[in-house]
Each structure stands twice: as C-alpha cells, then as structure tokens.
Hints:
Elements: E1 5-12, E2 16-20, E3 26-29, E4 41-45, E5 48-53, H1 55-73
Amino acid sequence: MCIGVPMQVIEAGPHWAWCQGSGDAVQVDTRLVGEQRLGAWLLVFQGAAREVLSEPRARLVLDALAALSAAAAGDPFDHLFPDLVGREPQLPEFLREP
C-alpha cells in the first residue's frame, strides 16, 4: 500500500522542491503539480507530489496518519478526530433508504 504524506515546501525549483515532513528534508518531483511557492503543502507519494493541499487539509491528513500510528501501538487516538467524537455516524446520501 502506498500512503501519501503531507510535506511542506522549504525550497523550490522548476521541477522539484525540497520538502519537510515528519523526518528529514527530501527532494520531491513536482512535475505533476507544477512549480510551488515556499510554504506550500504537497501530498507526496514515493518521492513525487501528486496534489497541492491547503494547510487545514494537510493538518487533517497528518492527524489521520498519527491516528493510524497510535492505533497500531494500542494508544488512544480520539483526540485526533474531535469532529467525530460524540456524534452518531451518518451514511452517505446515496446509501440511505429512500
């Protein structure tokens, strides 16, 4: 399985960007998303940016990845999904009975 990781641009060129994620800075291929400005958030899959993210969306994805790690370790993760805690799940409209 390939998981996209949000990374922030710290240096940019015409077809690449140095990006910082949760670890070391890495050089990312940006040919699919075009040249990016410093501070932009990119969703990176195996060294290539596939999507430009807003900062709030990047934070949501980072929280989801942190929740996966916490769940795998047997740690609580409800605090990472405050919008879901205490509410009843809803089916998407197309799955609801008419």
